[in-house]
Amino acid sequence: MLLEWNTGSLVLPDDLQWVDEFTWTPVQNDVVYLLNGSVLISSIARTSGRPITLVSQENGAFLTRTMIESLYTISGTADLEMVVTLHDERSFDVKFNTVPFTAKPIVFFSPQINTDYYSVSINLIEYA
Which of 9, 19, 22, 76 meets the CB 3.0–4.6 Å disulfide criterion with 4? Predict the structure, then answer.
C-alpha cells in the first residue's frame, strides 16, 4: 500500500484494512416530513467525499514510530493532495479527513520484541 504526495511517499503495510469501504454511497437521500404528514425525499448524486479509513488489525499492520512521525509531519500540511494505492492496485485521490490519524503504541510482553510499533487509523477522504 502506498501513500504519495507531490514531494514524497510513504509505504504502508498491505494488511491495513479499509473499514468503511461500503458505508458510503454515491447517492444521498434527505427525508423530510411535511406538516400534512406526507414525506418529501430529495436525492443528490455525490461525486466526492467518500471516506477511506485504513486501520491496523489486531495482529498486524502496525506502523513504526518513524512512519507515525512522517504521517504527523505531512498531516500538518494544509490542503495536501495525495494518492493512496491499495494492495489490490486501486488508486484514489485523497486528502486527510478532519482528524488525520490516530496512533496507539503496541505493548509486547516479550523483551526480545522491539516495542517501537503502533496500531493506527488513517482517516482519508476522496476528493475527486
Answer: 9
